[in-house]
Structures are given as C-alpha cells and as structure tokens.
Backbone:
C-alpha cells in the first residue's frame, strides 16, 4: 500500500498536480455526497473529509503543543473536531476541517518562496584561476589563490579575485559591483574586482583580496544575511490564536455549566473556529496577485503586497530602472555645420569591427538613425584604453577618447573641447572622431531615461511615498537624472554595502522601504528591503530571484497601480475580517441560546468564509483611479 501511494504521489508531481489539492477535492466531494446521503448502509461519507483533512490538523496541533508549546489556530479547530465527533456530528467536523485545509492550501500557494537566487550568485563566483609562477602558467582552484600571486585573466573570462593590474590593459564590465552599464577601462596600476568580466585581451594582475575577502564572496554574504534578517509575516489567525482558544473554551465551559447541554458547548466551539480569519488574507492576496499579473507584475512572494501597502519610501536604482540601460548616440556635434552625417558615418563604419560595448552602441544607433549603409572598414586596429583606427572609403579614421586624439597630434578647437567636457561631466560618454589628420567633432552616448519615469515618480509622491535615488554613478550623473524625474533625495557612488546600510538605517528608524533595481549589485538591497521589485525584462536573473516582485515588461509607469492595489487589498482584508467576526459573534449568541446546533452552526459560520472568498474575488478586476 505504501509503495502504491509513493508511486501515485510521484505521478501527481510529474503531472504538476498538488497532492493536497487532490485530497481537498476528494474531501469536498465526500461532504457533498454526505449531504445527499447517497452511500448505502448508513455510512456517513463526511468521515472521508475528517480523515483526509481533520487528522493532519489534529496531529499538527498535538506536535506543536507537546514539542514547542505553540498555540495556533489549529488547536481550537482540533478541539472542535474531536468534540463534534464525540457527540456524533461528523458532518460538522468534516466541514470545519475542509475549510481550514482549504485556507492552508491557499496560504501555501501564496507564500511559497524561491531561493534559487543565492545559488545563481554562488555560480557567478569563478572556480578556477590562472596563476603565473616561475614563468609558467597553471590553473588552480580560485580559493587557493594567495595574496601577492600573479593572476592572468584572458578575454571573456571573469576576474577570479580582487587585484591590481601589473601588465596589459583592457575594459571590464563591473555591473556586479556598481550596476553601471558603461565599460570601464583598466590600465597598469588600476584595481579590478572579482566578478568583473574582461572584455578584451589578456592582462596580468597581482592578487590583493582573495577567498572570503573578495568582492564576489562579500556580495554572496550580503545577500544571505539580508534574506535571513527579513521579517516574516505571521498569519492573523495564528497571532490571535491563544486568545481565541481561551475565549472559546471559556464560553463553551460556562454555557455547559449554565445550560447542562453539551451540544450547545460543541456548537460554540464549531462557530468559534477561525475559518474566515484563515481565509481572509490568502484569498485577498491571491486575487490581488491575479490583478497584478494582468498589469505586468509577477508576485513571487505571497505576502509582498501586504508589506508593500505599508511602504513609506521607495529607493530606485538608476541604470536599467529609471533609465533603459542601453547606450545610444544622443548627439552628434561636428566642428563644421552640416558635417554631422559624415562624422556619424565615419565613426560608425570604423567602430563596426570593434567588440567594445560603446562601439556596438555607435554602430547600432547608426543603423537605426543614420543615412545610408555603413562603409567597409580596413586596416582596423584597436588601441586598448583609447579607441580604434581604420580606413573607411579611402580616409584614415581615428575614433576614441581625448588621449587618442593627443597621441595622434590632432588639434581640437577650444570651444568644442569645452563642449565635450560639459557632456562628459553630465555622465555621458564621448567618442572623438578625426579623419585624415583633421578633427571632425564628437559623438555623445548616454543611457536614455524611461519616458514614464517622471510621471511615475510624481504619482507615487502624491500617494504619500517618498522616492529616493540610490546609484553607483557619480554625483553629477545622479543629480542630473534625479532632477529630470523629480527626485530630491539622492545617494550616489553607492556600492552594494552602501545601499544595504541605507535601507538598514531606514528600517531601524521604523520606516518601511521598497527597493527597485535590475542588476546583480542590487540583489542584497532587494533582499534586505521590506519589498524588493526587480525589472524583469532587462534585469539579471539574480536580481529577479532576490526580489519579491518582478516587473515583467519593465513598464515602470505601472508602479503606482501596484501601490494602490496593495492598499486596496488590505482594505478588503479588513472588510472580510469585520464581517466574518460580526457573523461569528451572532452565531455564538445563537449557539448559546440553543437556536443553532453544530451542523447549522457550521453552515452559518462558514457563510462568513463564502463572503470572504466572494469579496476577495472582486480584487481580480479592480482598477486604480488615474
């Protein structure tokens, strides 16, 4: 028999069917057939519901009481079940057990927690390193690298430990630590962090922080500690369980002493069962999650909407959250009027053979907005940390930073040099372009602001929530973006630890915080915040796994709807509780006076549960006012 049950359970799991859902379906059918009395021989099919739904409740209550002296809602339910069975009211016992298990299933479906994020972050940690010793290269486990060892990193590899470049040069992606989409050039003497990705040729570095001290390991620890410190919401029924149990037993005992009718006492225990309390929160949450899904939000954490309704501050990352996270050519500034198209064409054609992210952005922008096809580039050369040179349609083109212009002996007019410097100070990337020994002008690349970011910030401020910008960018870039969207509080140059400390400080002051981000560097803050929301389209897998909610299509303008939905959900929960408790109080009075017996008492009492489900269902189609 045991082997059969195990095989059946395995088949159900393969088919994506929950075992407890099957048991509930069987129990519900048995209660229906019990009412119709279709089973021959006088056997009451309500016993099926009692065994399948009631026995697990009783066992859980006994284990909680004996091992932890933990009084929860299942204690009172167990007392009511046993009392109902003793006096022969099997249907009442089965009905109460069924409702309680239904609430438990709904709660499990809404609070199921995914923990894949930490494992994905751990997999980012490089497992091996190329160590150079005595002129020979050997591959060893990254954890065995010692401070002072010389480590070689090839193109496309992830930096295994923190260190300082001692030979070569490259550009690296530091999104793991800073979240910034711009590549960072690294030359001899520059520091590099573990977890960064090497874009180009090999370079050698001397290890400075290894093992548990490395940047990527510190990130993993931050995510784990933030997850462990997040408070868990306790169910309302369990919070009040001790008082409910005492009140129910006292009322039942006094009624028995005064009336000497045990059936009245059992009826009180039945109507006192907190079925509606158990159902009030999960049914409203599930309906609200359904509404959120229709508006592009994937709610991964069941009680996230409950926490979101109390949020006082929302912290935004910049790159990929308020901005699109993609570099584009925003301006073409030529030395001579009317030469912008030629400048753009030559730059894009020369950069077309480069793998650098900025070069790809120039080429992509030209294909979208340029005039005519790209030209064929020949004699292409990439100069690490400076730019590229190439021949395009018989012209010798140079494209890169000001250092490259100076090394080529090019004269840059003072006025255009000052213009380029202003653009650079505002956070944009500059690519200078020259051809045949003459400086032509420059391209301005920047990360564009989302079109709905400003209106979204204005809406959440009107809802009484304070927006804050937390970014790894420098102060000028952060201030520029904040002024465009209307955010007044800005924290710039933030590492993951800085974001974590800011959120922790707010929480110690009793202020609830929501964090919105997209990068791996945001994962600790997303975990630590009362509610974490990740950009689901552009966001990294690790950020999404760390968050409670993912915005699937990255349309951040929908955030105000989610905030109002969470508050509406809490209003629905309070309405559900008020109605069901009022109905319970009326049922208790009727039970004390003998008007209700256990079966009718269970039916009246569960009418509150029906109201809770129906009222919660209205959230599915709820729409926020503009």
Residues:
């Amino acid at each position: 028999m045991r082997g059969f049950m195990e095989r059946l359970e395995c088949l159900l799991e393969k088919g994506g069917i929950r075992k407890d859902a099957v048991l509930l379906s069987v129990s519900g059918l048995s209660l229906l057939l019990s009412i119709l009395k279709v089973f021959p021989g006088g056997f009451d099919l309500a016993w099926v519901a009692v065994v399948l739904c009631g026995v697990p409740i009783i066992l859980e209550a006994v284990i909680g009481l004996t091992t932890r002296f933990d009084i929860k809602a299942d204690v009172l339910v167990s007392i009511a079940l046993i009392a109902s069975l003793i006096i022969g009211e099997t249907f009442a016992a089965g009905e109460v057990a069924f409702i309680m298990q239904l609430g438990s299933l709904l709660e499990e479906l809404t609070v199921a927690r995914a923990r894949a994020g930490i494992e994905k972050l751990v997999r980012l940690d490089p497992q091996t390193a190329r160590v150079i010793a005595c002129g020979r290269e050997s591959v060893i486990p990254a954890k065995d690298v010692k401070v002072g060892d010389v480590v070689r990193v090839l193109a496309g590899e992830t930096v295994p430990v923190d260190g300082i470049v001692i030979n070569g040069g490259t550009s690296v992606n530091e999104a793991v630590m800073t979240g910034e989409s711009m590549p960072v050039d690294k030359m001899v003497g520059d520091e590099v962090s573990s977890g960064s990705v090497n874009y180009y040729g090999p370079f050698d570095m001397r290890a400075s922080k290894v093992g548990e001290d490395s940047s990527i390991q510190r990130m993993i620890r931050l995510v784990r500690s933030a997850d462990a410190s997040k408070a868990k919401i306790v169910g309302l029924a369990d919070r009040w369980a001790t008082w409910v149990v005492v009140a129910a037993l006292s009322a039942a005992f006094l009624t028995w002493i005064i009336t000497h009718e045990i059936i009245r006492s059992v009826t009180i225990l039945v109507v006192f069962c907190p079925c509606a309390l158990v159902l009030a929160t999960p049914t409203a949450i599930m309906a609200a999650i359904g509404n959120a899904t229709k508006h592009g939000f994937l709610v991964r954490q069941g009680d996230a909407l409950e926490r979101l309704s109390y949020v006082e501050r929302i912290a935004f990352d910049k790159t990929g959250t308020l901005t699109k996270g993609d570099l584009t050519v925003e301006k073409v500034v030529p030395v001579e009027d009317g030469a912008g198209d030629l400048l753009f064409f030559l730059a894009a054609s020369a950069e077309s053979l480069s793998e650098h992210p900025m070069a790809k952005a120039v080429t992509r922008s030209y294909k979208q907005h340029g005039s005519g096809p790209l030209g064929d580039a020949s004699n292409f050369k990439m100069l690490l940390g400076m730019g590229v040179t190439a021949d395009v349609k018989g012209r010798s083109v140079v494209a890169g930073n000001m250092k490259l212009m100076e090394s080529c002996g090019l004269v840059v007019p003072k006025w255009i040099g000052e213009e380029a410097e202003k653009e650079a100070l505002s956070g944009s990337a500059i690519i200078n372009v020259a051809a045949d020994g003459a400086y032509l002008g420059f391209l301005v690349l920047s990360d564009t602001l989302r079109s709905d970011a400003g209106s979204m910030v204005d809406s959440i401020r009107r809802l009484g929530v304070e927006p804050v910008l937390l970014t790894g960018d420098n102060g000028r870039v952060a201030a520029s973006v904040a002024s465009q969207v209307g955010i007044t509080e800005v924290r710039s140059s933030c590492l993951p630890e800085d974001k974590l400390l800011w959120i922790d400080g707010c929480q110690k002051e009793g202020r609830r915080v929501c964090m919105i981000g997209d990068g791996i560097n945001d994962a600790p803050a997303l975990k630590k915040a009362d509610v974490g929301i990740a950009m689901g389209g552009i966001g990294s897998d690790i950020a999404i796994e760390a968050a409670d909610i993912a915005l699937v299509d990255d349309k951040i303008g929908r955030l105000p709807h989610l905030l109002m939905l969470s508050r509406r959900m809490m209003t629905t929960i309070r309405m559900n509780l008020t109605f069901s408790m009022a109905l319970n109080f009326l049922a208790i009075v009727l039970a004390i006076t003998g008007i209700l017996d256990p079966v009718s008492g269970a039916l009246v009492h569960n009418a509150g549960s029906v109201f809770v489900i129906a009222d919660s269902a209205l959230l599915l189609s709820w729409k926020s006012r503009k």
About this structure: The longest strand covers residues 323-334. The two ends are 59 Å apart (CA to CA).
